[in-house]
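Protocol step 4 of 6: structure prediction from sequence.
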Amino acid sequence: MKHLRPPTADEIRTLTGVREGEVRLGERVRVPDRDGTLPIGPRVALLGVPEDIGVRANLGRAGARRMWRAFLPRFLNMQSNAFLDGASVLVAGTVDLRDLRRTTRGLDPTVGGPRARADALATLRRAQGEIDGRVATVVEGLRRAGFVPVVVGGGHGNAYGVLAGCARAAGRALGCVNVDLHADLRPREGRHSGNGFSYALEDGHLSRYAVVGMSEAYATQAIVDAVARDPRVCAVTLESMLRTGVTAQSAAAAAAAHVGSGPATLELDLDAVANAPASAAAASGFTGAEFRAMAATLARALDLHAAHLAEGAPGLGPWPADMLGKLCAEVVRDVATAVVSR
């Protein structure tokens, strides 16, 4: 498949510990054949996007490129059992972005003189546009092959590629629920991690959109106005939940109801988890357990075509990289279990 860099079975074995009397997910998961053929049988396809180009293009902190590497060994070393059989999961690999990472290495639009900052910003935003196309191509291929892609890593700008790929495969626009402190509805000023949904709405890939946990403290007035005037969009703010006692599960159910029964994607931004290392880490937010519960609830409630776990940035917060990888693995397992049990 074009733009897909699959792992080998030996690479998966190297990352998987073996213990007598146990069966780990890594001993059961499937990988593409040597010729790139995708196996028949698994329902879920894990796809990594190791980049933080879009985050930097949004003037954010780099680090999301490391999420896939922190996540994968933690996932592979979970137990394969009656709750989730590793044979139902394909480790598809990563979107190949090595050339773009080379050409954007070291670019920081927040330092230097005005010309240097402007040039860096333009280069990063062009690169995010190229990433959009590659992510969309791989996601579309996985959908057409019958998989539910679960995308891990990279900035939240990749929500656009996930939606575009799913929309092409489905032949129609999709709904989306986004658990996130930010609505990512910034202006269409060149692609970056903060405007994926703005572009998806404009380009016809996104039909209905719900945000759970949007922060009133960090939403620009322009975004507040955009949510208020567009009936396709709704937001349950974190502060409104705190004021009224609405639970995370109830807010997730309301978001799913807004999106409706049509095909949809699920976006899960790790900056919604309090103190989780992320490009825009939060001092307050959901607990890890609440985040997992919403992920599982929404994966069951939606006609799920893909899920995306974004913005985790090992090294940018108080948690060790291994602990962040573990939370990501738990969330992905929750989503995979919901998909397989349908």
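Step 5 (inspection) to follow. Residues 114-144 form the longest helix (31 residues).
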